[in-house]
Amino acid sequence: MVDAKIEQRSFQAAMKHAPENLYREIRSAWKAHHRKFSGAMKRERMSGRPGLKAPTGTLRRGLVVKDEGNSLNTLEVSTMFTGAHAFFAHVHETGMVISAKGGGYLTFPIRSGGAARSTKITGWARVKSVTIPARLGFKKTFDRMTPALVKATNTAVHKALVGEAVR
User: What is the pTM of this model?
Assistant: First the structure.
């Protein structure tokens, strides 16, 4: 037979603060995970092959981590592209064929040295359409990092309820 004894007052005090502690720990764990995810996206998928070359860094700057809500019931932590960056991120995540309107042509400058930021235009290219390949890998990167998010959540729950991190 096992004899278990629970000190009622300590247990009640711990349970009174459990939702608040749980919210705080999970929010902290999720924000840390999303910052790691955002960093991995910028480092692995937005700094050259196999992802985007991103010479200007504009898309990279549009990737933000947001958290909303003031309780476990309303807590949302997300990594997203904001504003116009969201459209461009979608194009690079899923791929797209961009065609000229009305049967016309898309026109692109040809710059000396091939550099996108070079100021010297040496000619113009005219095409009916361009195909942007899917190459951002946002979902693939998130899916790869999901086990770490589950572990961080479990650790946060344990820490909130027991008072110490799982080793």
Answer: 0.72
